[in-house]
Amino acid sequence: MENTSHDRLLIIDFGSQVTQLIARRLRELNVYCEIHPYQNVTDAFLAGFAPKAIIFSGGPDSVTREGSPRAPEAAFNMGVPILGICYGQQVMMHQLGGRVESGHGTAEFGRAYVTPKGSLNILDGWFTEGDEQVWMSHGDHVSEIAPGFAVYGTSPNAPYAITADPSRNFFAVQFHPEVHHTPNGARLFENFLKLAGFSGDWTMGAYREQAIAAIREQVGDKRVICGLSGGVDSSVAAVLIHEAIGDQLTCVFVDHGLLRQGEAEEVVTMFRDNYNMALIHADEQELFLSELEGMSDPETKRKTIGRLFIDVFQKHANDIEGAEFLAQGTLYPDVIESVSFSGGPSVTIKSHHNVGGLPKKMGLKLVEPLRELFKDEVRALGRELGLPDSFIGRHPFPGPGLAIRCPGEITRAKLDILRQADAVYIDQIRKHGLYDEIWQAFVAILPVRTVGVMGDGRTYDYACALRAVTSVDGMTADYYPFSHEFLGETATRIINEVKGINRVTYDITSKPPGTIEWE
Ligand code: XMP
Fold it and tell me: Would the CB of 298 count as within 6 Å of ligand 1?
């Protein structure tokens, strides 16, 4: 959000895999921060951003290589505390007159132990039980520290594991305090923020007030439309915007016939009853299902659903006079412009369905009140706004819905069977108190019939696969280790209660190499 009145910290990104974790750790300490790639941090940007402190991230390059990334010189002259991490340390040493070496004996990967040398304010609370465990991941190391710096900690392969120039509040560490494998890392950040004078003013209560004021200013007396899926992000965005502008907001909930059992009623009731919101319930099941019936290619399904969704949304939005804005639940991880060293375009694994194509087509301006937040912050904001826990804790559900949990041909009959099996499975998970431990769980109906025997008769019905994964962000995932008792009981219930399924399997593929959804 522009014109934020919070204390701001700038993270200059040199392309580390874990830069986002720095931001996570700081947000947990109630500090507002933004990540920006080093190339974008010009002198003018720095002056405009006015950070109260700066952190240089790690990165994969070597400062000994000509043309490798550098920090903006102006950063060193702003009089604000700086913390350099890994590559960030090396770049600091290099630019301020020290030396960095690469080659034999300079690398260190994984767990290491740092031995203290003297005391330093940002290490308050460290070394209380001897050497401190840290996580290292570096090829090069500093071989000569910059003038004004002193060494405050060493490790077997990093003689300058912790260096600092306390007179300028410049700190540089070779290890990664942002990862969990540096158990006392949060303490180091806390000390750094304290000496930089952060007041910890980034709370969801403060954010809510600020976001509401910003939405009112942006929208004025115009109307906003919001695609509501019932997922956490769009729900929180809608409630926040509703709080800001009331009946200038109209939500559109598109029922494409690919929702779970009872889902449409649940979402519509919850918003109508609790929020008195203008909500269009677009029942377009027939439109979607008549086009999708018989379709089996995963990408064709996704593209068809995406196209129809846009058409339907546009049709209903056209009826809302004076709509100039479209609200989206974009999150911070979607907008971070990370430094990419791979150079090549990444492969499209799946065409994700979202409303991204809409604003251009419809000539609408965007309202994105969550674009500074991480997923868990969105949940915290949802709680702050009074959304029920049962809503906030819901498992993610993909835009194309059950269509991508029905590999092979889509038929209405298969969708009905799938809906019933999924309801039994989720009921089992809830009954066993496992729902909140699992990132996402669902049933996929397989395009194969198998022979079974029930009572004295032969059956020839569909097989299904149960899926349940744990994950932090959906990017990687592990299958959930259910007990055999749970799996056995669930299989029995599905076969007994759902006509059309006579065999149940459990998917034990993690991501990678699998994906979470089957298509
Ligand atoms: P995959 O299957 O790619 O899924 O491992 C990762 C996460 O994204 C969800 N997903 C989607 N969400 N539109 C969405 O809004 C989509 O098209 C879509 N495809 C997958 C999936 O459910 C999981 O949480």
Answer: no
